[in-house]
Design a protein that fits this description.
The protein has 205 residues and is of the alpha+beta class. The protein folds into 2 domains: 4-31 and 161-196; 37-140, Sandwich (Immunoglobulin-like). The chain contains 2 helices and 8 strands; from the N terminus they run H-E-E-E-E-E-E-E-E-H. The protein has helices at 4-31, 161-198; strands at residues 37-41, 47-48, 54-59, 63-73, 86-88, 91-95, 104-114, 119-128. A 4-stranded antiparallel beta sheet has the order 1-3-6-5, with no helix packed on it. Strands 2-8-7-4 form a 4-stranded mixed beta sheet, with no helix packed on it. Strand 7 and strand 8 (119-128) form a beta hairpin. Helix 1 packs antiparallel against helix 2 (161-198). It holds the Pfam family CopC. The chain crosses the membrane at residues 167-186.
Protein backbone atom coordinates (compact mmCIF):
# COMPACT_ATOMS: atom_id res chain seq x y z
CA UNK A 1 0.00 0.00 0.00
CA UNK A 2 1.13 3.55 -0.73
CA UNK A 3 1.53 5.96 2.11
CA UNK A 4 -0.65 9.02 1.39
CA UNK A 5 2.19 11.22 2.60
CA UNK A 6 4.40 9.74 -0.13
CA UNK A 7 1.74 10.28 -2.78
CA UNK A 8 1.12 13.91 -1.78
CA UNK A 9 4.84 14.67 -1.72
CA UNK A 10 5.29 13.13 -5.16
CA UNK A 11 2.37 15.11 -6.59
CA UNK A 12 3.85 18.35 -5.23
CA UNK A 13 7.22 17.61 -6.81
CA UNK A 14 5.65 16.69 -10.15
CA UNK A 15 3.53 19.87 -10.25
CA UNK A 16 6.53 22.04 -9.37
CA UNK A 17 8.65 20.29 -12.01
CA UNK A 18 5.98 20.77 -14.67
CA UNK A 19 5.70 24.46 -13.86
CA UNK A 20 9.48 24.86 -14.15
CA UNK A 21 9.47 22.89 -17.41
CA UNK A 22 6.68 25.04 -18.88
CA UNK A 23 8.60 28.21 -18.02
CA UNK A 24 11.76 26.80 -19.59
CA UNK A 25 9.96 25.71 -22.77
CA UNK A 26 8.34 29.13 -23.11
CA UNK A 27 11.78 30.70 -23.01
CA UNK A 28 13.07 28.20 -25.55
CA UNK A 29 10.15 29.04 -27.83
CA UNK A 30 11.04 32.72 -27.74
CA UNK A 31 14.66 31.91 -28.48
CA UNK A 32 13.69 29.93 -31.60
CA UNK A 33 11.25 32.52 -32.97
CA UNK A 34 11.25 32.90 -36.74
CA UNK A 35 13.24 35.52 -38.61
CA UNK A 36 11.43 38.78 -39.44
CA UNK A 37 12.10 41.96 -41.38
CA UNK A 38 13.35 44.51 -38.84
CA UNK A 39 13.99 47.49 -41.09
CA UNK A 40 14.29 48.72 -44.67
CA UNK A 41 15.66 51.59 -46.74
CA UNK A 42 13.55 53.06 -48.26
CA UNK A 43 11.17 52.45 -45.39
CA UNK A 44 7.63 51.17 -45.81
CA UNK A 45 5.32 54.03 -46.79
CA UNK A 46 8.21 56.48 -47.28
CA UNK A 47 7.85 59.45 -49.62
CA UNK A 48 11.15 60.23 -51.34
CA UNK A 49 12.24 63.36 -53.19
CA UNK A 50 14.64 61.39 -55.41
CA UNK A 51 15.06 57.85 -56.67
CA UNK A 52 16.97 55.47 -54.36
CA UNK A 53 20.14 53.83 -55.63
CA UNK A 54 19.59 50.60 -53.69
CA UNK A 55 17.07 48.69 -51.61
CA UNK A 56 18.39 47.63 -48.20
CA UNK A 57 16.49 45.06 -46.13
CA UNK A 58 17.51 44.25 -42.54
CA UNK A 59 16.34 41.07 -40.82
CA UNK A 60 16.44 39.86 -37.23
CA UNK A 61 18.79 36.96 -38.10
CA UNK A 62 21.51 36.20 -40.64
CA UNK A 63 20.28 35.34 -44.14
CA UNK A 64 21.31 32.38 -46.30
CA UNK A 65 22.81 34.00 -49.44
CA UNK A 66 21.77 31.00 -51.58
CA UNK A 67 18.04 31.67 -51.23
CA UNK A 68 17.45 35.41 -51.74
CA UNK A 69 15.01 37.06 -54.12
CA UNK A 70 14.26 40.80 -54.09
CA UNK A 71 12.16 42.69 -56.65
CA UNK A 72 11.31 46.35 -57.18
CA UNK A 73 8.36 46.96 -59.51
CA UNK A 74 6.45 49.97 -60.71
CA UNK A 75 2.69 50.26 -61.17
CA UNK A 76 2.94 48.93 -64.74
CA UNK A 77 4.75 45.77 -63.64
CA UNK A 78 8.25 46.73 -64.77
CA UNK A 79 11.24 45.56 -62.76
CA UNK A 80 13.83 48.12 -61.67
CA UNK A 81 16.41 45.86 -60.03
CA UNK A 82 20.00 45.87 -61.26
CA UNK A 83 22.07 42.75 -60.59
CA UNK A 84 21.83 40.16 -57.82
CA UNK A 85 21.27 40.95 -54.13
CA UNK A 86 24.29 41.14 -51.84
CA UNK A 87 23.99 39.48 -48.43
CA UNK A 88 25.99 40.64 -45.41
CA UNK A 89 24.80 38.76 -42.33
CA UNK A 90 21.24 39.97 -41.66
CA UNK A 91 21.39 42.70 -44.36
CA UNK A 92 20.37 42.28 -47.99
CA UNK A 93 21.32 45.06 -50.43
CA UNK A 94 19.96 45.17 -53.99
CA UNK A 95 21.01 47.81 -56.51
CA UNK A 96 18.34 49.84 -58.32
CA UNK A 97 18.54 50.68 -62.01
CA UNK A 98 19.80 54.26 -62.55
CA UNK A 99 16.94 55.04 -64.95
CA UNK A 100 14.27 54.52 -62.27
CA UNK A 101 11.58 57.19 -62.85
CA UNK A 102 11.49 59.94 -60.24
CA UNK A 103 7.74 59.79 -59.67
CA UNK A 104 5.30 57.03 -58.82
CA UNK A 105 4.49 54.30 -56.34
CA UNK A 106 6.88 51.33 -56.17
CA UNK A 107 6.56 47.91 -54.58
CA UNK A 108 9.41 46.03 -52.93
CA UNK A 109 8.91 42.28 -52.73
CA UNK A 110 11.26 39.84 -51.01
CA UNK A 111 11.65 36.16 -50.24
CA UNK A 112 14.62 34.97 -48.21
CA UNK A 113 15.66 32.05 -46.03
CA UNK A 114 17.42 32.62 -42.72
CA UNK A 115 20.66 30.84 -41.86
CA UNK A 116 18.75 28.34 -39.70
CA UNK A 117 16.25 27.50 -42.46
CA UNK A 118 13.21 29.73 -41.80
CA UNK A 119 11.63 31.19 -44.98
CA UNK A 120 10.53 34.84 -44.84
CA UNK A 121 8.56 36.70 -47.51
CA UNK A 122 6.64 39.94 -47.79
CA UNK A 123 6.24 43.22 -49.63
CA UNK A 124 5.72 46.93 -49.04
CA UNK A 125 5.42 50.16 -51.04
CA UNK A 126 7.05 53.57 -51.10
CA UNK A 127 6.51 56.71 -53.18
CA UNK A 128 8.90 58.97 -55.08
CA UNK A 129 8.10 62.71 -55.19
CA UNK A 130 4.95 62.11 -53.16
CA UNK A 131 2.78 61.43 -56.19
CA UNK A 132 0.67 58.39 -55.19
CA UNK A 133 -0.42 56.08 -57.94
CA UNK A 134 1.33 57.90 -60.80
CA UNK A 135 2.79 55.48 -63.33
CA UNK A 136 6.29 56.17 -64.70
CA UNK A 137 6.38 57.88 -68.14
CA UNK A 138 6.51 55.41 -71.03
CA UNK A 139 9.41 57.31 -72.64
CA UNK A 140 11.76 56.66 -69.74
CA UNK A 141 12.46 53.09 -70.74
CA UNK A 142 12.82 52.16 -74.38
CA UNK A 143 11.81 48.55 -73.79
CA UNK A 144 10.08 46.68 -70.98
CA UNK A 145 12.31 44.93 -68.51
CA UNK A 146 12.12 41.18 -67.86
CA UNK A 147 9.28 39.90 -65.72
CA UNK A 148 9.84 40.12 -61.98
CA UNK A 149 8.66 36.51 -61.67
CA UNK A 150 11.84 35.01 -63.08
CA UNK A 151 12.38 31.37 -62.16
CA UNK A 152 14.28 31.00 -58.89
CA UNK A 153 17.75 29.45 -59.00
CA UNK A 154 16.94 26.95 -56.27
CA UNK A 155 14.08 25.78 -54.14
CA UNK A 156 14.14 26.85 -50.50
CA UNK A 157 14.64 23.85 -48.23
CA UNK A 158 11.93 22.63 -45.92
CA UNK A 159 12.47 23.45 -42.28
CA UNK A 160 12.09 20.42 -40.00
CA UNK A 161 14.06 22.13 -37.26
CA UNK A 162 11.12 23.60 -35.36
CA UNK A 163 9.19 20.30 -35.18
CA UNK A 164 12.28 18.37 -34.10
CA UNK A 165 13.03 20.92 -31.38
CA UNK A 166 9.46 20.68 -30.08
CA UNK A 167 9.58 16.88 -29.97
CA UNK A 168 12.98 16.88 -28.28
CA UNK A 169 11.80 19.36 -25.64
CA UNK A 170 8.67 17.32 -24.94
CA UNK A 171 10.62 14.06 -24.56
CA UNK A 172 13.23 15.70 -22.37
CA UNK A 173 10.53 17.27 -20.20
CA UNK A 174 8.60 14.03 -19.73
CA UNK A 175 11.82 12.18 -18.86
CA UNK A 176 12.82 14.84 -16.37
CA UNK A 177 9.46 14.80 -14.58
CA UNK A 178 9.44 10.99 -14.48
CA UNK A 179 12.94 10.78 -13.02
CA UNK A 180 12.18 13.37 -10.35
CA UNK A 181 8.93 11.64 -9.37
CA UNK A 182 10.62 8.21 -9.23
CA UNK A 183 13.50 9.56 -7.13
CA UNK A 184 11.22 11.23 -4.60
CA UNK A 185 8.93 8.20 -4.31
CA UNK A 186 11.87 5.80 -3.91
CA UNK A 187 13.44 7.97 -1.24
CA UNK A 188 10.16 8.14 0.66
CA UNK A 189 9.72 4.36 0.46
CA UNK A 190 13.21 3.68 1.77
CA UNK A 191 12.66 6.07 4.65
CA UNK A 192 9.31 4.44 5.50
CA UNK A 193 10.74 0.92 5.41
CA UNK A 194 13.68 1.93 7.56
CA UNK A 195 11.35 3.44 10.15
CA UNK A 196 9.14 0.35 10.24
CA UNK A 197 12.12 -2.02 10.49
CA UNK A 198 13.62 -0.14 13.40
CA UNK A 199 10.26 -0.26 15.23
CA UNK A 200 9.51 1.46 18.53
CA UNK A 201 12.26 1.33 21.14
CA UNK A 202 11.70 -1.25 23.91
CA UNK A 203 11.84 -0.06 27.51
CA UNK A 204 14.58 -1.63 29.61
CA UNK A 205 13.58 -4.73 31.74
Amino acid sequence: MFDMTDVKATVRVVVTSLAALAFWMAGAGIATAHTALSGSDPAEGASLAASPTAITLSFSEDINPTFVNVVLSSADGRSWISGDPRVDGPRVVTEVRPDLPTSGVYTVGYRVVSADGHPVSGSYTFTISGVPGEAPPASVSASPTPSITAAPSAEAPADPGTELKTIALAVAGATFVGVVAFWVLSKRRRHTRASRTAGPSQPGG
